[in-house]
Amino acid sequence: MRWNPFKKAALQIYTPVNGEIIPLEKVPDPVFSEKMIGEGVAIIPAKGNICAPVEGTIIQIAPTRHAIGILAKDGTEILIHIGLETVALKGEGFKTAVSMGDKVLIGQLLIEVDWEYISTNAKSTVTPIVITNSQKGDRQYTITEEKKAIQGKTVIIIVS
């Protein structure tokens, strides 16, 4: 196959946290499992903090710090939603390390998470990673078949 200078390179989205990879359809919340927000995958976190899955710009930080949005250089919008029903924690258990508009690199710390607090006080620690602009239909999303997520090393989604 010849190199085509006009064809965009695929975007690789890395896992933002260590743990077990599960299909979005298995997330116990219909907003995610029915892909109402978009295409994606989820992680059952083992340990560690939330780090940038791509190089990009921070475009959203929930006031309760339980979710963060990143705009990748290719225009892909990625939402990392830490746990389920964690908005009710009112920010407890989360400490942000970035601000709106910050440029981030793959593996850069985004949010420190107290998983023990989250597992005790929220519905679940399952962390969906969703492409919020995937409904546009102009791209393909390939979800990994890997089961083990190693932060910054395991590619979980390829956007082409």
UniProtKB/TrEMBL annotation:
**PROSITE patterns per the UniProt record, alphabetical:** PTS_EIIA_TYPE_1 (PS51093), PTS_EIIA_TYPE_1_HIS (PS00371)
Q: Does the keyword Transferase apply?
A: yes
The record ties this protein, via Gene3D superfamilies, to: Glucose Permease (Domain IIA)
The chain positions of domain PTS EIIA type-1 read: 29-133
Q: What is its main location?
A: cytoplasm
Tell me where in or outside the cell this protein is found. Answer: Cytoplasm
Q: Which keywords has UniProt assigned to this entry?
A: Kinase, Phosphotransferase system, Sugar transport, Transferase, Transport
| Highest taxon in the source lineage | Bacteria
SUPFAM superfamilies per the UniProt record, alphabetical = Duplicated hybrid motif
Record keyword Transit peptide present:
no
Name of this protein = PTS system glucose-specific IIA component
This protein's species is Neobacillus ginsengisoli
